[in-house]
Every structure is written in structure tokens, then in C-alpha cells.
Amino acid sequence: MEIRERPEISAEEGDVIKKSPHSFMYKIGFFLFAFLLMAAIMFLPSPAPLEKGGELIPLTWDAKAAMALLAAAIVLWITEVIPFSITALLVMLLIPVFGIDTFKHVIRLGFGNPIIAFFIGVLILSSAFTRSGMGNRLSYLILSIMGTRTRMVILGFLVVGALLSMWITDMAVAAILMPLGVAILRQSGVKPLESNFGKGLMISCAWGPLFGGIATPSGCGPNPLTIGFLKELASIDIDFITWMSMGLPATILMVPAGWLVITTIFPPEIERVPIEREEIRKRVDDAGPFTKKEKWTLVIFMMTICAWIMSPFIRDITNGRIDMPMQAVALCGALLLFLPGIEVISWKEAQRDVDWGGIVLICAGISLGMVVYETGAARWLSWVFLGPVVQLPGVARVFVIVLGVSLLHLAFSSNTVTGTIIIPLLIALAADLNINPWLICAPAAFTSSLAFILVTETPTNIIPYSTGYFAIKDMAKAGIVMTFVAALCVSISILLFGNL
To answer: Mapping DSSP to helix (H, G, I), strand (E, B) and coil, where does residue 467 land?
Structure first.
């Protein structure tokens, strides 16, 4: 069984492959439209204040300016006439120009946020895990356990994808699984676009990472973004255990549910792959003993995970004298990889693998979200668009929020952009309704990275789609069903573990 090396996909390449090229006039037209819309919102007469519970909620000049900037950003994000991160930086630059805030404060809000250190640390750890070969070794090991029945192979890919993406980025996990899946399909002799097994296996290469990405704060971009917003806007500290208490059960529910959706919509036409379990085990044996880099990667990963999980307990036991915030733990784990005698990866390799554009987007997105919140624009917008939803009974509220964010995600082919827009609005509304912000932000944060319907919603989908084994309509057909199933899984998890 021929296994190709994991393709090297940079952040820039991931950004390019998810967008179709647009004409010059298309880009200029929408760029001008974004600024015309911004001007219209700013200079149109202010609407009458909203009245909620006897209190008036006005739309002040600063709030209108912030809302105008947000509207312009939304247009540029949807049309993708300039990169996501450049749009966010442009808006961040315009905030002080419009007199909403000082530039120094805006920079401090975003680039000075401690959660950025967490994100950088996680991306470097992710780079080490894939480059050291630990990802491929673990994939072979689990597949040797799952066997050669085609339905079980699909389940194995979902399980591997979910487990890996709890700790490393979704796109990296999809890049690990894709060549392994293609090798199995070629060995099985199935034809692209004609084989249900081919469709199901390649879709599982995307869905598994998406499922696991919501289980921990390190899973994907919207997770630390949400934690940062909750800390800054609601003074709520969400630690690793708190996040996992609802994220992990949702992941555990989605893996078998997703397996049933895939195998029901695309029932495999062959019972077994023509590869003996012993051959896969031989592949594990052929890999030989753990290399030095694999050993150090595994040790540092386990130490980092243990520190993340134990940090709240250590803080409580020592009455706060010893505090290991998860961003410090992530950065410490990343730094260990470069120490003399360890040197799992080089700095040049880390530079190539880390999505610096994503970091810029999170920094600028936090600045924009906090300005929208602090000016009162988030409060006004949340009552107009989300008020009826958030006032629904607990389970219905979670279900509708998940579906609403899923629809919003169709417009924004970026998990982080979706979270940047929706999370500040929900926090503002939670404050007015005296609802725990975490309980309504959690389903929105989870759904910000659950992109099942369109191939273009995330590079995690693009990677297996590029193999040619399934069509866009195939993912959409299964994805629509999975979106409702995922909404149910998230609702059940929050109902059981969120004290609704």
C-alpha cells in the first residue's frame, strides 16, 4: 500500500485554494460598495431608541460608527476581495480615524491580548506533531485496531481525526489523513465520483477533524477567540476543563452520529478493503521504534495536556499562589520544542507551518469585537437580531443558535470571522437578560468551526475535496443532514453538562 507524504500546505496556500479568482471590476465594485454602505450607515438619521424592560437602548454616534465599520467588514469578508486578515487590519486602522477609540488602545485590545500567546503556542505544537511523524504513526495504529471492513475504516478515520484535532489544527489533521485515505481507495480500486466508499472516506477526512476541533480550547481558532471575548467583556475565565466539560461530550456524540450519516447516505459498495489488518500492523512495525523527535514530541505534548487539565486544581490547592494560565502552558510547551538537545523542529519550519494570517485576524478581530461591544453597537444589534432567539427556553435556544450560526458560516468561509461577529453580540445580550454568557456563547463558538455543507467554508474541507473522490453536491447533501444532527448533539451536551 503506497502512502504519500503529507502535502505541505501553507497558510497562504490554504487561503488561495478556498477562493475562486475574481475579476478586477468585481473586486473594485465590492470594495467601493463596502465603503458606500459604511458611509450610509454613519450618516443616515439614527433610529429611535429601543425600549427593553423600561430601559431605552439608543444607537449613539460611536455605536453607529462601529456598526458601519462592522458592516463594511462583513461585505469585504463575504466577497473576499481582499484577504480576511487585511480586512480586519483595515477596520482596526479606521477605528481611531473615526474617533471611536485611540490607536494605542485598539492595538492593546487585540495584539496585547494574552490569548494570542495561547494560539501561537498551539500552532507551533501542531507543527511539531505533524513534522515529527507522530500523526502518521497514530493513524496507522488506530486503523490497525479498527480492521478492514469499509464501514469500520470510515469510523476509524472519524475517530483518528477527532482525537488529533483536539490538540492540533483541523487543516493539519485533514492533511495527515487525506494521503492515507487516498492510498486505501487506490488499493481498493474504486473510481473517483463513482464510489460511495470513496465519497464517504474522503468526507470523513474532513468531518473527523471538524468534530474534534470543538472538544478543547486548542482545537481551532474560534475557541481561544471566544475565551478572549468572555474574559475581556464578561470577566469570565474559561479554563481547559470548563471548555471540555461541554465540548468533549458534543464531540463524542457527533463521531458515531456522523458515521451513521455518512454510511447511510453513502453506503459502501464493497464490504472490505483488500488490505489485511496484518499489513497495516506491518506498516506500524516497519515504522520502527520511536525516533528521538517523536519521543520528545510525545513527552512535551503529554506534559502540556496534563498541565492544561491540572492547572485549575493546582490553582485551587495553592489558593492561587501557583497559577498556570493555559496560554502560558501552551507557550512553554512550544518553547521546549526548540531547546538544545530536543530540537524537534527548526524555527524556519515553525514559521512555514504557523498561520500568521490567522493570528493577525484573531488580533484584529478581538479589537473590532470589543469596540463594537464597548460602544453599545453590540447591545443594540443583539436586541434587533438575536433578542427573540435568546429568550427561547434553554434547549430550543441552543438549537436555534447552532442553526443560526451554521447559516451565518455559509456566508463567511472563515471560522474566526464568524466568531468575531457573533460572540460579542451574544455577550451583550446575555448581560441584559442576566443569562450566563458562557451558556449561549459555547454553542455559537462550537458551531463557528462546524462547517459541513459547503466545501469552500473551510480549508479542512478543501483538502479531501481536492482528491476528486466526491463532488460539491455530495458534501452538501450529507452536510445539511449533519448540520441538524450536530445542532442536536451540541444541544444535548449543553443540556446535560451546562446546567441550563
So the answer is: coil
